[in-house]
């Protein structure tokens, strides 16, 4: 039996996974375990999600793996029925080394598609030998092998769920050579891309993907949070819908996500002017909706740390598209109500945002770029001049060469305090462990903790913050 590791509910220790627990989860097709482990069948050479609808194999023919990459490295190919490429991702904070966690984020963002391994190591401040050691220890593969398999899994998802031509699928998955794509895909998936397309057929939607999550999922709470802060012309929200305009480098477009609770997925329709950034954009949408969180484990930890706190089941962390936008919205929200901050941000987008055309019959805009905000006097914003100067200063700094997404560095700028930086980290990075001690809403909700120490909620204090905001 392949040894894999599991996090206990308290996150205080690591235990070897009990194969009996895995067996029970796969036999029950328990969606709460989807993406937390994969089941490989030695008699067929295929690996599956725990929720696979196929007839369960005999236990003697089963091996368990923590990741799809590990299963593929052991010689198994992905199932065509349950599509492991569509499984929720394992949380990035699931016990990995901080350097490895950052490396994974950069690789998922295309660092090895746009640059070399040595360039990636330079960004991380480590040697390539040490990075290889981290990847072999965690996944049993090299960083390049990991990145290449993730590209193939994303390509498989596109082949299954869209009618994009194979050449477009290759480009959208980060391959710049069709021959290279065909060779890599056939080696790692076991079928040529066109052969897979013939077997599964192609749906009619040009660019619509299913993004799965582990239940429970408190959609109504997330929807209400977004709705109370929605920016007209930038975002749109309905009973089961969240969408917005997006920018990624030179790529612009928009997406609309429709919640399908009966299938534990969001149907996401995208419109982009360039498919080359599709993979990181899809990962960003997953972050906005917090689809990779394991809310059962998070809430078990919070319940143990703060037993008197009533919990909203399935609570998710509502993200903002990027740290810059989060920073701007945090500055505009300083010392004002949520409604007032929403009005200021709406005015900023209306005045300075680049037009995105009509979407479903309504004129829309993109969030303003840093240089655009920095160059504007912002006299259309009804707020104190000191805060207007803070916004200009922040935008000018962000537009310059020294800017970065490290919110800790923002507090060196005049007018940006710890609350602003922490709020931007919580929503712009979806950092799971932010405690907004100075927030007025938190201070009003603190009596519910009955003198319990919020530090006990680490590393999930962002979720504690949201739980308190929800009461």
TrEMBL record:
Gene3D superfamilies xrefs: DNA Methylphosphotriester Repair Domain, DNA-3-methyladenine glycosylase AlkA, N-terminal domain, Homeodomain-like, Hypothetical protein, domain 2
A cellular component annotation (GO) from this entry: protein-DNA complex
Keyword Zinc among record annotations: yes
UniProt record, GO biological process: base-excision repair, AP site formation; DNA alkylation repair; methylation
HTH araC/xylS-type domain residues: 101-199
Swiss-Prot/TrEMBL keywords: Activator, DNA damage, DNA repair, DNA-binding, Metal-binding, Methyltransferase, Transcription, Transcription regulation, Transferase, Zinc
Pfam families: Ada_Zn_binding, AlkA_N, HTH_18
Domain of life according to the entry: Bacteria
SUPFAM superfamilies, A to Z: Ada DNA repair protein, N-terminal domain (N-Ada 10) (SSF57884), DNA-glycosylase (SSF48150), Homeodomain-like (SSF46689), TATA-box binding protein-like (SSF55945)
Descriptive protein name: DNA-3-methyladenine glycosylase II
UniProt-recorded Gene Ontology molecular function terms: alkylated DNA binding; DNA-3-methyladenine glycosylase activity; DNA-7-methylguanine glycosylase activity; DNA-binding transcription factor activity; methyltransferase activity; sequence-specific DNA binding; zinc ion binding
InterPro entries (alphabetical): Ada-like_dom_sf, Ada_DNA_repair_Zn-bd, AlkA_N, AlkA_N_sf, Alkylbase_DNA_Glycosylase/TA, DNA_glycosylase, Homeodomain-like_sf, HTH_AraC
Coiled-coil portions: none
Keyword Disulfide bond in record: no
Cofactor(s) recorded in Swiss-Prot or TrEMBL: Zn(2+)
């Amino acid at each position: 039996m392949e040894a894999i590791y599991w996090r206990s509910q308290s996150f205080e220790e690591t235990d070897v996974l009990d194969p009996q627990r895995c067996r029970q989860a796969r036999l029950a097709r328990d969606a709460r375990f989807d993406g937390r482990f994969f089941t490989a069948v030695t008699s067929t050479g295929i690996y599956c999600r725990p929720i696979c609808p196929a007839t369960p194999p005999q236990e003697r023919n089963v091996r368990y793996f923590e990741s799809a990459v590990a299963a593929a490295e052991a010689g198994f190919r992905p199932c065509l029925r349950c599509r492991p490429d569509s499984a929720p991702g394992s949380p990035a904070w699931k016990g990995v080394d901080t350097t490895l966690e950052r490396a994974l984020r950069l690789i998922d963002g295309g660092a090895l598609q746009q640059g070399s391994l040595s360039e990636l190591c330079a960004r991380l401040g480590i040697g390539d030998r040490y990075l290889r050691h981290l990847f072999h220890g965690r996944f049993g593969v090299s960083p390049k092998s990991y990145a290449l398999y993730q590209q193939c899994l994303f390509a498989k998802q596109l082949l299954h769920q869209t009618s994009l031509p194979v050449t477009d699928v290759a480009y959208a998955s980060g391959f710049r050579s069709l021959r290279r794509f065909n060779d890599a895909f056939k080696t790692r998936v076991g079928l040529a891309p066109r052969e897979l397309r013939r077997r599964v057929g192609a749906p009619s939607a040009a660019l619509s993907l299913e993004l799965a999550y582990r239940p429970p999922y408190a959609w109504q709470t997330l929807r209400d949070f977004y709705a109370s802060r929605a920016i007209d012309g930038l975002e749109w929200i309905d009973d089961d819908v969240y969408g917005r305009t997006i920018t990624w480098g030179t790529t612009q477009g928009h997406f609309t996500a429709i919640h399908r609770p009966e299938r534990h997925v969001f149907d996401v329709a995208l419109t982009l002017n360039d498919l080359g950034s599709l993979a990181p954009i899809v990962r960003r949408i997953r972050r906005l909706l917090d689809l990779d969180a394991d809310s059962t484990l998070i809430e078990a930890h919070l319940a143990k740390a703060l037993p008197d706190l009533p919990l909203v089941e399935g609570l998710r962390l509502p993200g903002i598209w990027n740290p810059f936008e989060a920073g701007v919205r945090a500055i505009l929200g300083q010392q004002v109500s949520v409604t007032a901050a929403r009005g200021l941000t709406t005015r900023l987008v209306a005045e300075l945002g680049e037009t995105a055309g009509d979407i479903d019959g309504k004129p829309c805009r993109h969030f303003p770029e840093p240089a655009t905000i920095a160059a504007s006097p912002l006299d259309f914003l009804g707020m104190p001049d000191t805060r207007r100067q803070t916004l200009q200063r922040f935008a000018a700094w962000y537009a310059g060469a020294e800017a970065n997404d490290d919110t800790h560095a923002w507090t060196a700028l005049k007018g940006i305090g710890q609350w602003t930086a922490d709020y931007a980290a919580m929503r712009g990075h979806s950092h799971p462990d932010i405690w907004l001690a100075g927030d007025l809403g938190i201070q009003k909700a603190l009596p519910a903790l009955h003198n319990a120490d919020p530090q006990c909620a680490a590393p999930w204090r962002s979720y504690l913050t949201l739980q308190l905001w929800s009461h």
